[in-house]
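User: Modeling request: complex.
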Amino acid sequence: MKMSQLLGERFKERAFDIASQNLMTRGGYIKQVGNGIYSLFPPAKRIVNKIEAILREEMDALGGQEVLFPVAIPASLWELSGRYTSVGSELVRFSDRSGSPMVLGMTHEEPAVHLAMHVAGTYQKYPFMIYQIQTKFRDEPRARGGLIRVREFTMKDGYSFHTSQEDLEAYYERCYRAYERIFARAGVPEVISVQSDSGMMGGKISHEFMLLADIGEDTLVLCDACGYRANIEAAECITSNETDEVLDPLTLVDTGENKTIEEVCGFLGTDPAKSCKAVVYQRNADDSFVVVFCRGDIDISETKLRNYLKAEIHPAQELESCGLVAGCCGPVNLNAKADVIYDQSLMGATNLVCGANKEGYHYTGFTPSRDVGGAVPYVNVGQAFSGGPCPNCGEPALRISHGIEVGNIFQLGTKYTESMDMTFDDALGNRVHPIMGCYGIGVGRLMASVCEAKHDDYGPIWPISIAPWQVHICALRVDDENVRREADALYIALQAQGIEVLFDDRAVSPGFMFSDADLLGVPIRLVVSPKTLARGAFELVTRDKRVKEDVAIADALSRVRELIAELTAEIEREVPESI
RNA sequence: CGAGGCGUAGCGCAGCUUGGUAGCGCGUUUGGUUCGGGACCAAAAGGCCGCAGGUUCAAAUCCUGUCGCCUCGACCA
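Assistant: Request completed. Predicted assembly structure:
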C-alpha cells in the first residue's frame, strides 16, 4: 500500500481523553457515523481482519464450526426463550413491512439453538460448537470511548452443546485456555480472567477476560494473597461484627438536620461501621419499593440485589409515597409500603445507630437480633470493598481495580434448550435437553484495548501479530532519484517476500512523515533518504524504539525477515499450550 | 431516562451578550523555495451558520419547536 493512495487523514489536534479513542481517531482508523456507531478506515479493518484470523484459528482448533446467523431476527424466536419481554430497551425491536415484530441480534443464543435443534437429535452428534463473527447491535443507553463501548460492533460468539455437565466443564476449560491463547496472540497476554456474574445470560459459572485499565468500566476485586479475581458484581462481601458485651437500650436521639450516614455518625461521634443505613430502590416493573438495610460502611451491589429480587430495579426517586422518611429510615417502627431486606453485614452487629422513621430523629443502641421482630432473614447484597476480606482465602487483602471486558465465557446450562425445547436421544433412548456453553469476544473492543495497552504519546504500538502492516517504508525526499529508485525496489522486494508493506511515497517533510508513521504504529520502519543511501544503507527502527540501526542495502531483506521472526517469536513465547 | 453543554468551511474554533458585508488556525489546490520530528512565501477554492417555524425593514445572533452530538449520572449481556 502506498501512503499517497491510502484513504484516511491523520490529525494533530488532540480530541479525546481516552487514549485509544484519541489515537484511533487522530490516526485515521475510525470515523464516527452516529452515537456509538463507527466506520473503519483501511488500517483498522486490516487489524480487525488479523484479529478475526486468530479467532478463527483458535475456534477451529477447538473443533468449532463457523456459521452465520442473521442480524434481523423474527421476534418469535426471542419469544420462545422468553427474552423478547425480559430484555430491556437495549434490544432493538421493530416491525417489517407486514407488521411482523423483529429484533436486531444483540447475542445469538436463540438462532444458535434454532440452527442446531433439528440436526442434533442423537447423542452421537455431541459435543459440538458453532461460532460466528458478525455484527451485533445493542442500543446502549450511553456509548462512549470510541470503540471501547459502542452500539454496533463485531463479535465472535460461540455456542457449544453437550450431553453432560462434565463434558461442558471439560470443554469450558479448553475454551478458557483458547481465550488465554487468543489474547496472548493478539499481543496482550496481560489480559486476566475474573469470576463474573452471569447476568441475564443465565447459567452459573462464568468468567470475564479483563484488560486492567483505569478507563475500564468494570470494577474488579483482586486478592494479592491468594490470586482470587472477580468482578465486583460477583465477589462476595465478607463482613464480621464483634458482639458487644453490654447491649445498650434503644434510645431515641434528636439528630436535627443530619441525614446522611456521614453526617449522623459525625454528629454522634460514631464509626459508620456501628450504624445501620437504609438504601431504597424501586422495581422497574411496578415502582414498588424495596428497602435494604446494611451496615453504614458497606455499599449495596445493585447487581446482587437485582439477582436476589429477580427483578429490574432502580434507586428510588422519592420516598414519600411509600411512607419512608428521607434521611431517617430505620428498621424499628418501620411503617412503609415496601419490602424490607437485611444485608448480611448487619449479622451479629450490636449497638448501632439507625434512623427512627421520624423526621430529625435516630436511634442509638439498635441491635438487630433483639430489636427486629422474629428471626432476621439476612441476604448477601453488599459490595466487596478495598481492604476487605477475600472470599476465597479470608485475608483482608482485597484490592479494587478497573478493567475493560474483552471477552467472556459462560456455562449456560439448559436455559435455552429447555425454553426452546431442543432435545436429543441419549444412548438409553431418553429424550433430554443438551447443556450449553457460550463464548464471546468483541473484536473492535479488543483492537481498542490493545491500543489502550500498547501506545505512547505519539500513537499506537501495534503488536506484529495484528499490526495493519508489518513494515513501513519512509522515503524522505522522493524527489531524489536515488531515493526513489531504492525505495521502489525495496517496496517491491519486500512484497515479493509476502511481507505486508506500507510505503510512504509522499513528498512531505520528514517530521510530517514520522508523525504519521507513529500514528499508524507499524512495528518495523525502514527509512530511505539521501543520508542513508550515502552510507549505502537504510535505517531500520522499530516502533517500540528497541531497535535503531543501519542495514546495508543488500542485507535489508534478510534483516527484516529476521526481525519479523523475532517479534513474532516474542509474542508466541507468551502463548500457553492449548488443551 | 435525569442534569449540563455544543451544532458556523474537511478538522479545530471565534463571532451571538448589544440583530446590519461570515471570520481565524490547520488542512486542500496552484506556483516557488525548503527537507531527519507535524517548514516558508505567494495566490486560490471552499459555508442555506443542524433543521423548521416565529419576531423584525433586516436573524448565525432574539423567541418557540425539533433533530443530532458531547460530558456527568442512571443503566449494561
